[in-house]
């Protein structure tokens, strides 16, 4: 007997909410992939990334031409009202990753989806990391992101060898906020800078294809970027010398409920729409007008 009930992934003929754009029958661009990201880097084209936590914003980001969407554990603050990312669980990440994945398929379905591995989901062993990475990819992620250097290199190597694309994260690592002593710039002292250089090279050698550099001095971030030929740096508060940029979506839309970070620009103020703000962000990153090192960097 044939069921008449739509599945959760099927697009119903009508909806009383109308929040999602209709599915595009023909993509307006080729899907973003690891080879495509490498080609962009080789051609000097900046990579754009924004966070997204639900289907609607993910679909709009895809339609606006954003290259990558990060299902960040920043959802702990943005969506859940937490003081940090530490309380975000794998259950939370799987829910939001699946929501984002469904959303992009209501648009072009071309954006590259990165999902954060939350606090405690990869620290016990590479095997634990693999189990949780598999769950995130089965939920719809194309790549997983984990924080920290040193001990994480072996975990990255373990995941990459088994077909899991990995984005690393150095500098300010929010999951270790309490150990770092708060939200402060990382790498100002020479010893800190040398450690970041060493760890970034170790992560590249382990197979990480991307590396988020958060709240790192612009000169140091640019130097690390030049040193890494096969790992694409994505900056947030790290100046304009990285291979790409990422911002928390709600920050760049001017929806931050606290103090706006120095490295954020409100793209919504002159855009007129969420999609317009995203398009303006993409254009500003691509043409090099954002970030401005004199305003948004250290």
Average of the residue pLDDT scores: 92
Distance separating the two termini = 64 Å
Helix content: 25-40%
Number of DSSP E strands:
8
Tell me the structural class: alpha/beta
Give the ordered list of helices and strands: HEHEHHEHEHEHHEHEEHHH
Gross morphology = globular
Number of helices: 12
Strand content: 5-15%
Q: Which blocks of ≥5 consecutive residues have pLDDT under 50?
A: 1-7, 9-13
Q: Could you give the order of strands across the largest sheet?
A: 1-2-3-4-5-6-7-8
Oligomer: single chain
Please tell me how large the radius of gyration is: 18 Å
Main sheet record = 8 strands, parallel, barrel
Protein architecture, described:
It contains twelve helices and eight strands. The protein is an alpha/beta fold. An eight-stranded parallel barrel has the order 1-2-3-4-5-6-7-8, surrounded by eight helices. β6 (210-214), α9 and β7 form a beta-alpha-beta unit. The chain starts with 33 loop residues before the first helix and ends with a helix.
Report a brief summary of the structure:
The chain is of the alpha/beta class. It contains twelve helices and eight strands. It has an eight-stranded parallel barrel with strand order 1-2-3-4-5-6-7-8, surrounded by eight helices.
